[in-house]
Amino acid sequence: MLFFDGECGLCNRIVRLLLRMDGRGVLRFAPLQGVAAQAYLRAHGLPTEDFDSLVFVPDWARRERAEFLLRTDGALAAARALGGVGRVLAWARLLPASWRDAGYKLIARFRYRIWGEWKPRPLARAEWAARFMP
Questions:
Q1: Cβ contacts of residue 96 below 8 Å, gap of 6+?
Q2: Structural domain of residue 31, as residue ranges?
Q3: Which end of the chain is more exposed for a tag (fewer CB within 10 A), N or C?
Q4: pLDDT tens digits for range 108-129
């Protein structure tokens, strides 16, 4: 399960890219502002109003006890789960997390100014809708 800022233009574009890359249907998604994400965030002591980080839960079936990954660790784990090109992208794990996360935080700070707020639009494939939780 990948929780993302549902109001962020960049975040939504990345989710749509992941949907296209995920031919096996491995990843599921939910906006951080949604019911599922808010319940998970509260249960794990994570901020419920600060949406500058994605949250990846690799084993959603065990969500009560499942580990979670934030920022670049989460993004790279999600890419690795996709396989194929995602595994190539996951090689960025070799860079120190402090460097990766510094870049992530910089982009997070300016993402609304550059990519704006997301204006909902239909998904390219209707079957993708089943991969989202409210």
A1: none
A2: 2-131
A3: C
A4: 889 989 999 999 888 999 999 9
Cα 93 from chain centre: 16
Write out pLDDT tens, residues 36-65. Answer: 999 999 999 999 998 888 999 998 888 777
Quote the Cα angle for 58-78-25, to 5°. 85
Phi, psi of 36 (to 5 degrees): -60, -45
Q: Helix, strand or coil for residue 35?
A: helix
Residue 83 Rama label (left phi>0; alpha psi -120 to 50; beta): left
Which pLDDT score, from 0 to 100, does residue 128 have? 95
CA distance 124 to 4: 19
Whole-angstrom Cα distance, residue 119 to residue 4?
15
4's tokens: 């993302």
